[in-house]
Design goal:
Length: about 425
């Protein structure tokens, strides 16, 4: 018969194993799966036709336990987007830290979007979903990587509240006309860490490893760590990294880097770093043949050989085709500052001005219903912005209620426009007040 001391020791060891196992168990909740055609009943599609565009896009059940988001993007009539989303419901993602998407794409970069209760139309939290043509990938997107936006422009930082998420979906708006295809197996919310769910690049020789071993990229790696992008550059990829040297960062105006590394400026730092990453493995030969590459901001980076040098955007190439297990590195002599990072996020005043400029054109063209849709989205977005006072939010809420009390779109447009004009004046007066 075992001694009491041995039993206690045995049970203690068993308890330690159980506690250790429970500590690594992550909370997980399925947001979308596609076991049958019935599972697509809660989904809907929204294309740029609401803004006058002619893009085609929709979804279908594949018969293989997946959903296919397919169509053809057109840039005509100022269009250029196609999207699908599931209908609003109470998801309650409390306790989760991000979502995991298993998908197979066509090499284009899509957006995965989250919407919270009360949001409408074009207002959503959006994050990049890169794809590799023909390959299944499981990608984790932390909530901290999502950015609130309207009309494709970023709004002041307001983090995702997991408890308020009520819908998710996908959008393609990469400014490339032509057919597209994204096949999705599932979307889950999870509390697992990045390391627990991401697929590490094979060989332990990732872009981050290679840059660290080479030396001369300490500033780049410190910035990637501060922006929480080091994990992305260590994941499966593949990616093409346009790597500015330490000397390149030193060329920035004095104090710029210190400012960017502050936590409150993280979103701007993220944009600058994403400007240096191109999805896929793009050798210099391929880049020069194509004359450009599209980065994680969906912006074009020009590649050209002129006057005995290779230009990469506004920078010069120092060294090319440095191999890593999850991509390739091209070394450049200058930091590539994206236009969006220079202009900063869209303010409440800027949002109103943008919406009115688009709405007026639609109204004058006789498409008053589309004008109303633009104004409604803007009013809803303004009501969620911290810079808008409670009194102004009340004005906007009343305008929404009054506009919905009439069925005449011309009248609806004027009601909503009047409330935006009033809020715009208050914001401008507050900005110029001594």
């Amino acid at each position: 018969m075992p001694s009491l001391q041995l039993l206690i020791k045995s049970h203690s060891l068993m308890l330690a194993v159980l506690l250790s196992h429970s500590a690594v168990m992550a909370k997980e909740k399925t947001l979308a799966s596609f076991e049958s055609a019935e599972s697509l009943k809660s989904w809907t599609s929204v294309n740029d036709g609401v803004m006058g565009g002619v893009s085609k896009g929709g979804f279908k059940y594949t018969g293989q336990g997946t959903m296919a988001f397919t169509g053809e993007l057109s840039l005509e009539n100022n269009g250029g987007f196609s999207s699908i989303r599931n209908k609003l419901a109470s998801l309650d993602l409390t306790g989760t830290t991000g979502i995991v998407v298993k998908s197979r794409g066509d090499g284009r970069t899509y957006w995965v979007e989250l919407r919270v209760a009360g949001q409408m139309g074009a207002t959503s939290y959006r994050a990049n979903l890169p794809t590799t043509a023909g390959e299944w990938r499981e990608i984790r997107v932390p909530y901290k990587d999502f950015r609130l936006q309207a009309f494709g422009r970023e709004l002041p930082i307001k983090p995702v509240d997991p408890a308020a998420v009520a819908s998710m979906g996908f959008t393609l708006a990469d400014k490339k006309a032509g057919p597209f295809n994204l096949e999705v197996e599932y979307v889950k919310a999870t509390s697992a860490s990045d390391a627990a769910v991401s697929t590490a690049a094979p060989g332990g020789n990732t872009l981050v490893d290679v840059a660290a071993a080479a030396g001369g990229f300490k500033t780049l790696l410190a910035a990637a760590k501060a922006a929480d992008l080091a994990g992305v550059l260590s994941s499966e990829g593949p990616f093409t990294l346009l790597a500015p040297t330490d000397d390149a960062f030193a060329k920035l105006p004095e104090g710029t880097l210190d400012t960017l590394l502050k936590p409150e400026n993280r979103s701007q730092l993220v944009e600058i770093l994403k400007n240096h990453v191109i999805p896929g493995k793009v050798t210099l030969a391929k880049a020069l043949e194509a004359r450009e590459g599209t980065n994680l901001l969906e912006a074009k980076i020009a590649f050209a050989f002129t006057d005995g040098r290779v230009g990469v955007g506004t920078a010069s190439l120092l060294k090319a085709d440095i191999e890593a297990s999850n991509g390739i590195i091209h070394v450049i002599d200058q930091v590539l500052i994206p236009a969006r990072a220079e202009s900063g996020p869209l303010t409440a005043v800027g949002l109103i001005e943008l919406a009115i400029s688009r709405g007026v054109q639609l109204f004058n063209d006789g498409d008053t219903a589309a004008c109303v849709a633009v104004y409604e989205v803007t009013v809803e977005a303004l009501r969620s912005m911290d810079s808008v006072s409670e009194a102004s939010r009340a004005t906007l809420a009343k305008a929404l209620k009054d506009s919905r009390a009439t069925k005449l779109s011309r009248e609806q447009a004027w009601i909503l426009r009047g409330s935006m004009d009033a809020v715009w004046k208050i914001l401008k007066d507050a900005k110029t007040a001594p």
